[in-house]
Write a structure and sequence with these properties.
heterodimer, A: mainly alpha, two-stranded antiparallel ribbon, 1 helix, 2 strands, about 45% helix, about 10% strand, disordered C terminus, B: mainly alpha, 22 helices, elongated
Amino acid sequence: MKKLLSIVLLVVVLSGVAGNQAFATKDEVPKLFRTSSFTIELLK
Amino acid sequence: MKVGHLIRAERIRQEMKQLVLAKGICTPSYLSKIERNLIFPSEDIVLLLFNRLGIDPSKLQNNDKKTETDFEKMLEATYKEVITNRDESFTKQKLEYLEQHSPLFENQTLYYTYLLIVLRFRIISGSNLNEIKKGIEDLEELSKDFNPRQAYLYKLNKAIYYYSTENRNKSIEYFEDALLLGDNNSLEVWEKAELNYMIGVVYTADGRIFASIEYTRYALDYFRENFLMKRVLDCYILIGITRKKSEQFQEALESYTKAKQICDEFNLHNEKGIVYHNLGSLCGTMGNSEDAIRYYKQSIKFRTKKDSPLISILCLVIEYSKMNHQQFINEWCDKGLSLLSQLRDNNFTSYYHHFTFFKSFHSEQGLSGKVTEDAIDYFKTIQDYQYAHKYSIALAEWYYNNRKYKLSSICFQEANRYGYLYRKINRWEDL
């Protein structure tokens, strides 16, 4: 059980490190061409 | 008569083999020479070939310099007007005019330019993507005979098409090709500004922030000098996003404020939706959920198209989720889902998964493994690893908090894998 918990914690730490690099909020990028009927861009 | 290029283009469009077209009229090898304009056939043969292809011979234009020059001037002026003004009804009207007249020129260069410009108008007026794809494939077969300007227009069409299908890597590849060709083609200033703007948008959408600024600024200068205020506004939004992504929040705010001023001064009320949305996103990033919510709600008010509030509704849900405000999350998820059911458009499937995820996450019964796994599977299928990563983490944390450590561990591992894919790396050492 202890071993399993330590694995879980390591993975939690790793995903935490990775998560810092990406902002979670979403910006709306203007359309490539205004007449477009395509979806508004979700910025990644 | 020099009509080989017309016959070839139409035969390719109809996916007809040379053997089929030539049958009973001439030999396939003779047809091949006609198509490459190596032989100029008699009028009788031309009429027979035209007849089999359903080409109306009355659309053949006078083979004189004036007719060609006049048409070329009209075509280029329309192209410039459509691209710089970006008026939806104007574009459709011009496209309709060009398609109805579909003039046939013995001048191959002029005819190919006509085909390329018509395709561009079709893309920007939102024609069916499968038809656009077919148009691009048909032109590929003619592309060996394109002059440098036509090669530039062709690459641009491909770049825009791929952006529309959300294949950004391919889109960027073709935009960069177009950029190189553009440099060798000595483009007019307006055309260069348009190209720079598009590259600014695509780079921003792909997170290539530093590259994006340079191109957007070039476009901004041109649009400002020519009082194309809607275009200036788009540039300020792009610059705001790049500033925000570089954590220059004050500069981002200044850029969005300029965009808002333009909306007010030039009565561009329809544009306020996107400006308020990005102001909301900026506040959200800065940790100010209350202001973010206020801006998102304002943004929704100014949306004119049915689909456009979806992004702001989703961001509202995200902010309420940060505040753990169950009632509002539920209300806004329901609004989003009801809008989706009215739209009935597969392009918005990702929103369905976002809303059902947040609804389930904050429900009384707690997060549903099935809802989350469906969402993760969907984002995995469309190779949107950011969301596969995000929702895998949410599921993993959910299991962890509910003491399901083994499941949690598996989900965290999956989440890390998607995180690597999202960052285009293979190992933790590369982080």
